[in-house]
Amino acid sequence: MPELTRRRALGAAAALAAVAGTQAATAPSVSAAPGVSADGHHHGGPETFDEVYRGRRIVGRAVSGGGHHHGAGYAVFVDDVELHVMQNADSSWISVVSHYAPVATPRAAARAAVVELQGAPLVPFDAN
Length: 128
Description:
This protein has helices at 6-26, 106-117, and strands at 49-53, 56-64, 72-78, 81-83, 85-87, 93-95. By secondary structure, the chain is an alpha+beta fold. The longest helix is centred in the first third of the chain and has 21 residues, at 6-26. It starts with 5 loop residues before the first helix and ends in an 11-residue tail after the last helix.
């Protein structure tokens, strides 16, 4: 086997980068969240949900005014306590409980918060 030189290592890295770039350019586009098309335009908002997840009731719905919302928005609740959620510029969602773990939907943010809470009650978040 030939000895690995800097020139061969750089050549191999360039070839891998070219292959990865070609695959990324030809991969189909997938939107990160419901209501967002492949071109990034919003068509409605996130889906409403109401379910019991790991013994906790999680609800998500569109809201207008009140609370921390300025105008129309979306609210998520865990056991009737609002879970502060936010949509990022890339259409991912985060919550005050799992702030560093973006997910694709508000439902996924609620589920992640339930897992992170490990049975503890959600304490109301005063955003003002």
